[in-house]
Amino acid sequence: MRYFGLYVLLCSALSAAESYNIEIFRVFGPEHPGQYKHPASITQLANGDLYIAYYGGTGEYGDDTAVYGARLGAGENHWSPPTVIADTPDRGEGNPVVWQAPDGRVWLFYVNRYGETWSNARVKVKISDDGAQSWSDSFMLNFEEGTMVRGQPIVLNNGDYLLPMYHETGADRERTGPSTCSYFMRYDPVTKKWSETNRITSPMGNLQAQVVQLTDSYLIAYLRRGGDFLPTERGYMLRAESRDGGYCWSDAVETAFKNPNSAIDFIKLNNGHLLLVYNDNMNERTPLTVAISVDGDKSYPHRRHIAGGDNTFAYPYAIQTADDTIHIVYTTNNRTTIMHAVFDEYAIIGQPPEL
Fold first, then answer.
1. What global pTM score does this model have?
2. Number of domains present in the structure of the chain
3. 74 found inside a domain
4. Which residues pair with 100 in a beta bridge?
5. Which of 58, 148, 309, 327 could be 62's S-S partner, Cβ–Cβ 3.0 to 4.6 Å?
6. Which 8-state DSSP code applies to residue 33?
7. Domain interval for residue 139
8. What is the CATH number of the domain that holds 143?
9. Range scoring the smallest mean pLDDT among 54-68, 236-250, 291-305
């Protein structure tokens, strides 16, 4: 029994040490259809599979772009070859968000561009009731020109779904207009009706809000700043909040987090801690940093770069699976490659599980 006890203790210690690791895998690169791959989203399906959706083609504004999907089966080591799951003839696709709801239905939200810039876009939807094996015909979620989607929905405490949306303005591909703003669409799974919240505004504009719910009434969102991509000393992430369960939202204000006009993600972990992933830079999309709050958004003392160097690491999208593992997908190598980071919370906060 003595040796057995020592063996168990050693195995537990090894597991704790391994929990500090961040494993990063290359999912797809230029060898798959479409040189351009950006951005990607990920969800865990009810059977344990992981499913990725991204859009690809000749470039960001190519009319040949389509939405692709791929699967990593539970217990498997290789993703399935990407296949087209949404494609509108002669119009560009963008920003797919794939998400499985509590009832098992898989939603695919994506952008359909009707003009020269994203300010001419609308959001379309497909659904799957067989675990993303097949997809419905597409339907329009919002007919307003300039409507965009990028972040995953959350399930509110009352059972409603809250989907981040934004309205992009301006005719310049290298900047968004100051009237660019964020909002949410709310879905009642009983009535199957969508409704809109108010718009979140800020002086330079904002987009791509990511949201968590802390109490029945209190929600917070972190947002990408708007504007251009020129060098700046005022490149900060924004923050907004709701005090009535997500129906009405405050204006967005600057935070201390740097933001080079790039996407971020923000999720609540299974234990209630908050995870923010972003580019810790005002002007470049490097490094890619994960920060964790263990006190309900009051502070983020636990931070770690998960990718860095002379490259770009963009559009992070984070989930936590049923086994508490954190998965983040992002793009790199000039938007030709999708990467997949896998780790647990202890890799960031530096506290091993209790032995």
1. 0.94
2. 1
3. yes
4. 106
5. 58
6. S
7. 32-149
8. 2.120.10.10
9. 54-68
